[in-house]
Amino acid sequence: MTKPTLLILAAGIGSRYGSLKQLDKLGPSGETIIDYSVFDAKRAGFGKVVFVIRQSIEKEFRETLMKKLAAHIAVDYVLQELDKVPEGIRIHPERVKPWGTGHAILMAKDVIKEPFAVINADDFYSADAFHALYKHLKYASEGNYAMVGYHLENTLSENGTVSRGVCENDENFDLVSITERTRIAGDGKQINFVDEEGTAHMLAPKTIVSMNCWGFTPGFFTHLKASFDDFIQQNAQTLKGEFYIPVVVNNIIKSNQAVVKVLQSSASWFGVTYREDREYAVQQLQQLTSIGVYPSNLWPEIKE
User: Residue 189's pLDDT is what?
Assistant: First the structure.
């Protein structure tokens, strides 16, 4: 059996954080959130890690994180850049924003040939997420996808609004639809999202949401490419249009080309969307270390 691969989306600009949060040292011995994700994935049974990064941070990634991890697991990377679009497409000259998560995954189509999981670089998912994905992926047939779902109440930030993919599943825990909701926040009494017209709508605390923690088989790249080719034809001249994973997943589900199993997690998410999130992330990682979930030093090379 070929071990599944972990694909980590790490090409984000991090404008709300104010620095390169992918490499921010948050753990007791200088670990990044990525270190914990790779540690959990390796323990679960994943055999390789592939990063999606930008050329502007390539040198720093290679000389720090990738060099260190290569002593413990197979490591590779691909670049996500604005000009990685079909030939003949003209991009708006002032465009800076990346093309989105769907485009990021597409960049790895030539280096991943086995079932794979997808995560964000700046989100902590917990060990059970990787165990659930590994269990699903190790025998997954083509078109048999998965998504780790989290309870909405466990995914909020106290420092600003968040965007989440609100999920609907059937009685078999197969995903029926996923809808991107933005400007989600809780006030201690209820959780609301604000629509494009500025109207607030309530969301139930136990609503299952996507945190970009997916499991796919290699055929997903074919769906991605076809969808992105259509997307870029319509959005090449926009400044902010993005190609999101849920859009592709919804289309695949509706056309009965794949099944997406919702793997539920009771864990509390945390991440570093905002700079103010950093202190909480540091505290959580210290607590998890103190109770023995993680060793005080994930990799011997990290300790300074």
Answer: 84
Mean pLDDT of the chain: 92
Distances (CA, A) of 82 to 15, 85, 155, 233: 17, 7, 30, 14
Kindly report the CA angle at 53 between 121 and 249, in degrees rounded to 5? 65
Rounded CA-CA distance 286/11 in Å is 26
The predicted-structure confidence for 272-282, as pLDDT tens digits, reads as follows: 888 898 999 99
Q: What is the pLDDT of residues 233-250, one digit of tens each?
A: 999 999 999 999 999 999
Nearest of 53, 105, 95 to residue 245 by alpha carbon: 105
What total number of domains does the chain contain?
1
Is 123:212 a contact under the CB 8 Å cutoff? yes
Do 29 and 302 form a contact (C-beta atoms < 8 A)? yes
- What's the pLDDT score for residue 14? 62
Tokens coding 282: 């540091």
Q: Which residue, among 232, 190, 221, has the nearest Cα to 87 in the 3D structure?
A: 232
CA distances 288 to 119, 127, 296, Å, are 20, 11, 10
Locus of tokens 């639809």: 177
- State which residues form the domain around 60: 5-302
Q: In angstroms, rounded to a whole number, what is the distance separating the alpha carbons of residues 224 and 108? A: 11
3-class DSSP state of 22 = helix
Q: Per-residue pLDDT for 301 more than 90? A: no
The CATH number of residue 92's host domain is 3.90.550.10
- Contact by Cβ (8 Å): 122, 272: yes
Quote the tokens at residue 208. 């299952």
Residues 6+ positions from 135 with CB-CB distance below 8 Å: none
Residue 265 backbone dihedrals phi, psi, to 5 degrees: -130, 135
